[in-house]
């Protein structure tokens, strides 16, 4: 196809069946991604942010597979663009943190740092923890290295008495690339050390059970989760940290999440959060007692 739209930006990523005319698809400055299964050639149009998203040419109604492949690719690219512009999602809570202000005298502020499981819990906080100064700082999809990057902004700067950390399942899923248990443990230890260096008491929550990940099937995460939780429990006992065991209360016979407590095998439903709430309250109370 001709280049009627003007010059291609440096670092543009093309998605389609063939590189645009005159562009070397092997060039490191112009990477090219092929989408399998396309039955029509795709035109590549450069869009904002240096990404070139695919657009089907003359698609008929029966070409739904092609259209879906294109939409999925566009969604993945949009997510990658967000990661490139703000990898740790520091912008997610920046304004909310600024509005929050320091704790009131005598306030036992608690920050919940985690992934989608905490992110989705926030709407239930008023009924599950009425009147409590609990602040949710969960971000869907996040891994331990991302949480470590934002730990100062989203935890230390808020001056809580306690931080509850729930992290690790997205690392096992490979959300930000392959990750060993040792890598997850290193990041958790770093977060604990940062908290303790700033006089913040730590509740280290177990990873919730999961027999599989709907967005990345076949990884068999259950034994890895069990192993990571065993390490966390031992580490907590040796370093003055409270271990919060969600896993034992929520696992089924396959070490997956009990069907009555989940929407998709990974994320709790409201019944699941109601199991988690009293366990969390007891762990926070233990941390505040200064164990």
Beta-strand content: 5-15%
Largest sheet: 5 strands, parallel
Shape: globular
Strand order of the largest sheet: 6-5-7-8-9
CATH topology of the largest domain, by name, is Rossmann fold
Give a quick precis of the structure:
Helices cover 37% and strands 14% of the residues.
Key structural traits:
alpha/beta; 5-stranded parallel sheet; Rossmann fold; 4-stranded mixed sheet; 11 helices; disordered N terminus
Describe this structure in words.
- The chain has 291 residues and is of the alpha/beta class.
- Helix content is 37%, strand content 14%.
- It folds into two domains: 13-85, no CATH class; 96-288, 3-Layer(aba) Sandwich (Rossmann fold).
- It is built from eleven helices and nine strands.
- Strand 8, helix 9 (222-238) and strand 9 form a beta-alpha-beta unit.
- The longest helix has 22 residues, at 64-85.
List the helices and strands and how they pair.
Layout: E1 13-16, E2 32-34, E3 42-47, E4 51-56, H1 64-85, H2 94-100, E5 110-114, H3 116-119, H4 125-128, E6 134-138, H5 144-149, H6 151-154, E7 162-165, H7 169-173, H8 181-197, E8 201-205, H9 222-238, E9 242-244, H10 247-250, H11 270-288
Parallel strand pairs: 1-2, 1-4, 5-6, 5-7, 7-8, 8-9
Antiparallel strand pairs: 3-4
């Amino acid at each position: 196809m001709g280049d009627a739209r003007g010059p291609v930006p440096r670092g543009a990523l093309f998605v389609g069946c063939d590189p645009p005319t005159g562009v070397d698809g092997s060039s490191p400055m112009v990477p090219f991604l092929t989408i399998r299964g396309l039955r029509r050639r795709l035109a590549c149009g450069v869009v904002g942010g240096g990404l070139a998203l695919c657009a089907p040419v003359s698609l008929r109604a029966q070409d739904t597979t092609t259209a879906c492949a294109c939409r999925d690719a566009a969604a993945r690219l949009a997510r990658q663009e967000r990661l490139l512009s703000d990898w740790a999602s520091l912008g997610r809570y920046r304004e909310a943190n600024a509005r929050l202000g320091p704790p009131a005298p005598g306030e036992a502020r608690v920050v919940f740092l985690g992934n989608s499981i905490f992110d989705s819990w926030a709407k239930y906080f008023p009924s599950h923890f009425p009147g409590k100064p609990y602040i949710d700082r969960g971000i869907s999809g996040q891994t331990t290295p991302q949480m470590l990057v934002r730990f100062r902004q989203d935890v230390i700067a808020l001056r809580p008495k306690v931080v509850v950390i729930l992290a690790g399942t997205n690392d096992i899923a490979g959300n930000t690339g392959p990750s060993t248990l040792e890598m997850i443990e290193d990041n958790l230890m770093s977060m604990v050390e940062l908290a303790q260096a700033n006089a913040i008491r730590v509740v280290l929550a177990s990873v919730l059970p999961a027999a599989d990940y709907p967005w990345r099937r076949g990884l068999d995460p259950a034994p890895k989760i069990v192993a990571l939780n065993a390490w966390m429990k031992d580490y907590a006992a040796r370093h003055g940290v409270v271990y919060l065991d969600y896993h034992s209360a929520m696992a089924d016979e396959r070490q997956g999440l009990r069907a009555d407590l989940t929407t998709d095998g990974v994320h709790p439903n409201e019944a699941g959060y109601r199991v988690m709430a009293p366990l969390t309250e007891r762990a926070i109370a233990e941390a505040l007692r200064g164990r």
